[in-house]
Structure formats: C-alpha cells, structure tokens
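FORM 7B: Structural annotation worksheet

SECTION A. Query
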Amino acid sequence: MKKLSLILITIAAVSSSCTWVKVSEQASRVAVANAANVRGCVHISEVNVSVPSKVALINRNADKVATELASMARNEAVNDLGDTIVPSSTIENGRQSFNVYKCNKK
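SECTION B. Predicted structure
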C-alpha cells in the first residue's frame, strides 16, 4: 500500500509540473494585454477557459495554470478573429475569463 501511495504521489508531482496546453500557430500571433493596451481596439467577445488546477488532490503550479489558461484563450481568440486577449476575471479553480479584441486593422 505504501508503494502504491508513493507511486501516485510521484505521478501527481511530475504531472503537476507539465504543461498540457500548446498555442496553435495562428494563436501565437494573439497578444496577451491589459485593459490600458486595448483602448483603441474593438471588443469582439468573451471566452471562458479552464484547465485542471489539481492532479490527484495536489495543487498544480499556479504559474503553469495561468500560462495554460492564457494559451487556451489565445487559441479560442483565433476562432473569433481576435488578435488580443485581456483577462477579465481572476483564476478560480482552474477557470478564467478573457475579453477578446481586434486591435490590428488588417
């Protein structure tokens, strides 16, 4: 039983440090900004994204969760033809909302 617990803890610790969300090629051109940076932009939509914040009852690294949420929002922004995202909520239980904007006039 101790061996199984040790294996599960090891798996959880290793997987909690992994990044599971990758930014698509198109989404790599989507900027992450703050409200001051989007004053002249057109608001398109709001996206709600979520990632696991815990693995086997162990909290994942907060920075990795935040990075994955932003990556997911960038991927979603492409679907709405947006080129910039701005967080519109705080991170709670691996969930966050982002406003999507069109800033470049191309």
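SECTION C. Observations
Residues 2-102 form a domain with the Translation Initiation Factor IF3 fold (CATH 3.30.110). The chain has two helices and six strands.

SECTION D. Sign-off
Analyst initials: ____
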